Amino acid sequence: MSADAAEQRPPGATVGVPRESGSGERRVALVPKVVERLRSKNVSVVVEPGAGLGALIPDELYVEAGATIGDPWSCDVLVKVAPPTAEEIGRLRSGSTLIGFLAPLTSPETVAALREAGVTAFAMESIPRISRAQSMDALSSQANVAGYKAVLLAAERSTRFFPMLTTAAGTVKPATALVLGVGVAGLQALATAKRLGARTTGYDVRPEVADQVRSLGAQWLDLGIDAAGEGGYARELTEAERAEQQKRLEEAITGFDVVITTALVPGRKAPTLVTAKAVEGMKPGSVVVDLAGETGGNCELTEPGETVVRHDVTIASPLNLPAGMPEHASELYARNVSALLELMLDDGGAVAPDWSDEVLAKSCVTREAE
């Protein structure tokens, strides 16, 4: 395309990047490298002043990438990390598009407010888990961060070494770590604990993931319960299955120095995997890191967002662990957002979603025409 033709090319979409308002949220929805990519597709990007500071990205880097520093709320598309507040929804322009984590299953009032505001909204957690959408799977990208950080937290809180140490004073046995729920976060936790030298074991109610656990050098804890569900998630257990699972887990958990739990059921309270009785049976100084605190927790003694000691066992339930690694978490999330956004752009860079596309249809939670 000649320079004259480029100048005559109609402007594409404008994409706004606000500063996240949530307490402790340090991530940002787009990073400079992704801004450069979007600019090459005739998309203009407006970044709110200081939007990237939590992720250690100064405004100057956005400007160098081709973005404008200004008010993002009047743009055609607004991209966020956390769900918008009521005040933020009030700032969105009717007819605009919102992309971000929106918690449609647990916060229907947010979806209702977006619909009332005339906003077309795409929830990153509603991206279908199909091969074609892997580059947009923000749940997985952020779960990788959480699984990694969970192990570092466990190692910090533990009173024991993770690796085996051979010293002049004798040999120290390696710590034993059990990961309950081996989706993306759980697999990353197993891999990270293994790198730190722990003896690792994984458990999930989906027996088909056993080979993935073993491929990481971990052992598989077989309790004889199968709860494979749809979309890569486990189905909810029956009462009888849950009781049997808890009984067998209580016996197994007491033999581990570290237990990391990651089990979630979409739209429901997290299942209880570590009972108070199991915690009481663990060795003093052991650690439980519960990654399901935002939906009630997998441990019966969990206090979401807090670290407590019960029966001489430390129970940590950090919320929003990815925000603790904002640089890489933002980089991964920005790639996810960009991949989804590019799917809905036409050749000129304007927003023109093809509603027959499975990814767009399933991730959209409100449409302007509704």
UniProtKB/TrEMBL annotation:
Domain Alanine dehydrogenase/pyridine nucleotide transhydrogenase NAD(H)-binding, by residue range, is 155-317
Q: Which residues form the Alanine dehydrogenase/pyridine nucleotide transhydrogenase N-terminal domain?
A: 16-146
What SMART domains does the database record attribute to this sequence? AlaDh_PNT_C (SM01002), AlaDh_PNT_N (SM01003)
UniProt keywords (A-Z) are: NAD, NADP, Nucleotide-binding, Translocase
The portions of this protein that span the membrane are none
Annotated region Disordered: the residues are 1-24
Give the Enzyme Commission number.
Answer: 7.1.1.1
Q: Which domain of life is it from?
A: Bacteria
Q: Does the keyword Nucleotide-binding apply?
A: yes
Enzyme type, top EC level: translocase
Annotated InterPro entries:
AlaDH/PNT_N, AlaDH/PNT_NAD(H)-bd, NAD(P)-bd_dom_sf
* Gene3D superfamilies registered for this protein in UniProt: NAD(P)-binding Rossmann-like Domain
Q: Per the record, what are the reactions this protein catalyses?
A: NAD(+) + NADPH + H(+)(in) = NADH + NADP(+) + H(+)(out)
Free-text function comment from the UniProt entry: The transhydrogenation between NADH and NADP is coupled to respiration and ATP hydrolysis and functions as a proton pump across the membrane.
The name under which this protein is listed is proton-translocating NAD(P)(+) transhydrogenase
- Species: Pseudonocardia lutea
Q: What is the lineage of its organism?
A: Bacteria, Bacillati, Actinomycetota, Actinomycetes, Pseudonocardiales
